Protein 1
Amino acid sequence: MSGELAQFLLSGLTVGSIYALVALGFAIIYNASHVINFAQGEFVMIGGMATVWLLAAGLPLALAAVLAVALAALVGLLLARFAVQPARGASVVTLIIITIGAAILLRGLAALVWDKRIHALPAFSGEAPIALAGATLAPQSLWVIGVTALAVAALWGFFNRTLAGKAILAVSHNRLAAQLMGISVQRVLLVSFALSAALGALAGILIAPITFTSWDVGVMLGLKGFAAAILGGMGSGPGAVIGGLLLGLLESLGAGYVSSAYKDAIAFIVMLAVLMLMPGGLLGGRAAERV
Amino acid sequence: MRGLLALAAVVLLAPLALANNYHYEIAILVGLNAIVCVGLNLLIGYAGQISLGHAGFFGIGAYGSAILAARYGWPPLASLAAATAAAALLAWLVGRPILRLRGHYLAMATLGLGIIISIVLTTEDGYTGGPDGMSVPPLAVAGFALAGERAWYWLVGVLLLATVWLALNLIDSPVGRALRALHGSEVAAEVAGIDSARHKLLAFVLSAAIAGLAGALTAHYAGFITPGKATFLHSIELVVMVVFGGLASTFGAVVGAAVLTALPQLLTVFKEYEMVVFGGVMMLTMIFMPKGLVPTLAALAGRRR
């Protein structure tokens, strides 16, 4: 394998992991409520920006990161409770506009409370690059890929081994039947928003040392995570992970070999092609177990 | 027709309240946005198909006319017509495969399309000037340049009335009834013999052409265009104007465009809070009056009577 190709693959997997985490967030909320949460990208922003802010306030990195994830989860809860729940049963257009409004509101608040500058987090464990297959790998990339793998494994366990996770799955399969079994659909909605927000914030913290963070970083990351969710098949957990990684690889290879100017367009061209040719996505058509 | 006359009266009498060129400028921007929203309302409000990418068609109109006039020396009227046709042609080409999608999926496809257009406009800086934008020659007919805020005001006013008249007539025609039928239920509409694919495509192409025309006019009026007008955020602003004013209400679209265009201009003191206010208004409107301003007020007035 040539060093150049290996480099593209490694950076594709790194950024693809981030897309996978964001796409999982979309999938969890979509399954629990059939809402597409356009504010998903803002959770990524909150994760990165809150960590930068808490770090500057003198907290150690690990504590700052945990608090940032908790803050995002709280924002997710508030969003579900005060914006999505009151509009239950509203039309698709209404729900789309509510979550886009929430995204704009959160972005505006971030610019007010924090600032409009670009920030970088320090890498978690040094900057010394690791040589691998003729390419160099930043230690932070290992953190991104490793933590994403752990998060995916933890989610799998949550949805398959715990009662709370199974309750969310039940609601996604059949809302009414789940309700008749005594599952609180309201609580499932709240939990799914908090969980998605935490995942998004985690992604934002992991990627901040590599691509930096700022008040408006959520727009592109959110929309690309969304493209990844479509590529994998909306509502499919494994699809979200595969879609995210695949999209990261396509983007990295496309930027390297085709056109770096159009790097940002690749995700949307893929999304449009998937929607036109196979709207179910890679795994959406099959009745696979949905996360 | 009463509504159209009332709107004509507003357009005629508004100059009495417009004290200076800045006021005229706001009025012109309101008019141009209202034209886009009346078109978009045909698609979203009547046909029930969402588009999160109409700023893309607006951008194609604006940049198409600007590039043809500035870089190839076309007379502005010809470039205006060609750019409007280009927006319509693109809508026709992508509309067929995209409009088979529904709900969320249609929203995403139009969103993707809009973003791709905006990335192309930003990247092809040889033609478009990239993120810095480009200057646009003034609108001229047979050598006479249309200059001055007042002249533009009357042009935009007349065009707005023409667009509203067109929309009102379309809605009352068999085509309009077909659009409303397929909004209610596509299956039922098909059973009643309505070619739903053709009608959805018609609403999509018409709204894109109107957005393209308004984009071209905006570019010639401002004399300068940047990719900001073609972004995802501008697409959202357009949809919010339509929904805030009231879906399936042509005058609602006009009112929505007027309120949401004029307010940020008048509240520049609160520049820092603009996004917070805008996002908050979007959420509160949708939660507490999902039908939009004009239909909600009309229902209130009806109840009191």
Protein 2
Amino acid sequence: MRFASIDELEHALQAADYLPDRGLSTALFLALTLEKPLLLEGEAGVGKTEAAKAIARATDSRLIRLQCYEGLDVAHAVYEWNYPRQLLHIRAAQEGTVSEDELFGPEFLIRRPLLEAIESDEPVVLLIDEIDRADEEFEAFLLEVLSDFQITVPELGTIRAHRRPTVILTSNRTRELHDALKRRALFHWIGHPSIDREIEIVRLRVPGIPERLAAEAAAFVRELRGLELAKPPGVAETIDWAMALNALGHKEIDAEVVQQTLGSVLKYREDIELVRDETLSRLVEDASAASVR
Amino acid sequence: MASGDAITRHVVTFGRVLREAGLEIGPGRVADALRALAAVDLTRQEDVYYALRQTFVSRQDELDLFDRAFGAWFLRAPVLAPVRAQPAAQLARAGETAVDRLRPRDAEEEPGGEPLELGASPYELLRDKDFAELTGDELRRVRELMERIARQRPHRSSRRRSADRRGDRLDLRRLIRHSLRTGGDPVDRPLRARKEVPRKLVLLCDVSGSMDNYARALILFLHAVVGSGRGVEAFAFGTRLSRLTPDLATRDPEAALAKCTEAVVDWGSGTRIGASLREFNDVYGRRALSRGAVVVIVSDGWERDDPDLVGREMAKLARAAYAVVWVNPLKGNPDYQPLAGGMRAALPFVDRFVAGHNLRSLEELATVLAGIERRHAA
């Protein structure tokens, strides 16, 4: 699915409950229009994966996700033969009547995300999540797939994509990616959203949340990001926390409420310890001041 | 509105400006940028900015440079001079630096009466000689030996398997093929085994004044290790931290040491181990660079600031890392006791504590690295 302009894509994303900033909508628009993979990087929790899900919803596409990890191989990323079925098939047939061609045919093939995305007849958004965690050998293989959009299964031959999937790659930069892969992709760095946008996001994702609570929660998280934390909270944490506060029936935040619910914002013990007592009270004060403006 | 030709010229020239500024811009990127501009509304400056940025830039650390170039080129903003570290003046004031000592010393400095023990080969002597006492000539020979040592790397087993007669898993694809001939009965059992791949290795080397005597030799070791293959990251620290990997991979080690020493050492101000570790944990640890890695810290443990910070940051580091090795050249002295505050605070989080004052101790280090296992509690 193509969009005539960035504005049009933004409307579609908003209709899919996603509020991108202009940079991200431009990136997604270009990925669709130029049919190039899009590499998204940014601090944890800024919504890289969420962006892929949103573009799938906005374009009425199926989302196929490949989660990368160290040691990810072809059997888990592309295809694997269904060995139990093959064995049963040999057993069930008359001795000598099963040929190798039959045994290694499409009905015995288990399709993993990459093959599924290539073979699909419906529009697909292929999310290759945390590519930096896969081995470099796998990255080189992926590069081939992304240049030709075809996959070769030795027993079956080459399978070509009928239509190119929209490809979104995410990376947490645990290592540098191959230059060749970067050359092939558009690149967008997602930063933390502005305070106004974050409030908008919270109000969109937590229906019925009091305006004041949304503003205070967003402002408080913003204060937290200014501290030296092991893991600064992302937008996902702001949403989780706002949900928790809203579910508990709070209308605004105070030191006690924050103390009780801090676990949904900060995920490390030393971060929670850092934000205690005076620090916490000060942050709450600053946040309510900032949210009134 | 500019005509198509004018835009093309504009973008091609802008690409050249960026290339000169150090970005990797090839014809492919320029073509992408032109296609991207054709797709967006050229009257919206924000869209033009992102279209160019997303096609020309591929790394976060290039964003700043791009922004400056974009400002100068398209917005006609005055160009700000890039921030530069203070140059040679500081070095000169400090007198002899670790870099100076890297250079071969004059012949007359060669100790005339080198202790010659009967039966000991020159290699044996060199092996046990304290790095602080090496002459330039010896340093060159040491460098060759180091390359041999550095090739030993810690390994982890990969999830990937390949055919192996002594493997521990059935090779099902081959099993099926073989079973065809025997009517579905798996008569022989082809096996697969996990492959061994080098484990990530992170080196953090103290290059501050108190380590001066050892830095010149240990930087050669870092250079040799970085040259030993992928998955090695090296950093230098003094009062700050600086990533050495790109320099060590391309430059000669002397130039790399010169550059990093200038960047991380404030002369006469001591070492900030805790602050440097915090910088490492915050910037690189957060990107999981240390996760599952063997982290080697080379330092004498003299902390200028609060030793407690060293302890806290070591705890974080040890949690992410597979194992932490501390190399302290002072440990080569039999009378040495780890009394320095920073060292004492760090030790509880260290898996292996080794010397590193001569070649023999580096050989030991290599053996430790090759066989290391996680010992501390996760």
